[in-house]
Automatic annotation (TrEMBL):
A single BP term in Gene Ontology: negative regulation of DNA-templated transcription
Recorded family membership: Belongs to the transcriptional regulatory Rex family.
GO terms under cellular component: cytoplasm
Residues binding NAD(+): G90, T91, G92, N93, L94, G95
Lineage, broadest ranks: Bacteria, Pseudomonadati, Thermodesulfobacteriota, Desulfarculia, Desulfarculales
Record-given protein name: Redox-sensing transcriptional repressor Rex
Keywords carried by this UniProt record: Cytoplasm, DNA-binding, NAD, Repressor, Transcription, Transcription regulation
Species: Dethiosulfatarculus sandiegensis
GO molecular function, one term: DNA binding
Subcellular locations according to the entry: Cytoplasm
Main location: cytoplasm
Length: 209
């Protein structure tokens, strides 16, 4: 049986569609046309239809998409019809900001444990009430809390070691904010977030405009 490879850009756009549909649902909108949804998301209607076609048939010709129904389907596709437990390593400014960000909880991402090596921080709680454990306890605490996704906010020279230890849990995926490429087995998925790369991209487009 052959499995269709879904473009990464399509998955990213599904997240955008999901956010837009949530706002429409909160505004008591029941039906949305592909044109209106496209305008909200900054794409064209054909792109929305193409993205959704990877996963089946959605909407009614001449009517549009039923907001709550499409939102449910997209969340199911993205695996957002459940909660995900996160483990944070690195409780500096960025790590603390991520834990405190209410959008994570709203989207079903729950930080269940946090780690650091700073003796001043270990044993204390973050503003959200989450206890900071020493990184030496990573494997044990991650297993106890059922963490499934690791979030790395450490200096780059420590990131690979943390990724290796996550594999001992095992952790299924890693969101990596450290500016370095991680080496992990195929069973672990990694998403790298490097803000300087985004700024470089902006600088290029501004310069070449």
């Amino acid at each position: 049986m052959k499995f269709l490879k879904i473009p990464a850009a399509t998955i990213s756009r599904l997240s955008i569609y999901s956010r837009a549909l949530e706002e429409l649902a909160q505004s008591s909108e029941t039906v949305v046309s592909s044109k209106k949804l496209a305008e909200i998301c900054g794409v064209n209607p054909a792109q929305i239809r193409k993205d959704l076609a990877y996963f089946g048939q959605f909407g009614v010709r001449g009517v549009g998409y039923f907001v709550k129904e499409l939102l449910f389907d997209i969340k199911k596709i993205l695996g957002l019809n459940r909660q995900w437990k996160l483990a944070l390593v690195g409780t500096g400014n960025l790590g603390c900001a991520l834990v405190a960000h209410e959008n994570f909880t709203q989207q079903g991402y729950i930080f269940t444990c946090a780690f650091d090596v700073d003796p001043i921080k270990v044993g204390h709680k973050l503003a959200t009430g989450l206890m900071i454990h020493h990184v030496d306890e990573l494997e044990e605490i991650c297993r106890q809390t059922g963490a499934e996704i690791g979030v790395i906010c450490t200096p780059p020279d420590r990131a690979q070691d943390i990724a290796n230890r996550f594999q001992q849990v095992p952790i299924a995926g890693i969101l990596n904010f450290a500016p370095t490429q991680l080496q992990v087995p195929p069973t672990c998925k990694v998403e790298n977030v490097d803000f300087t790369v985004k700024l470089d991209n902006l600088a290029y487009h501004i310069t070449s405009a």
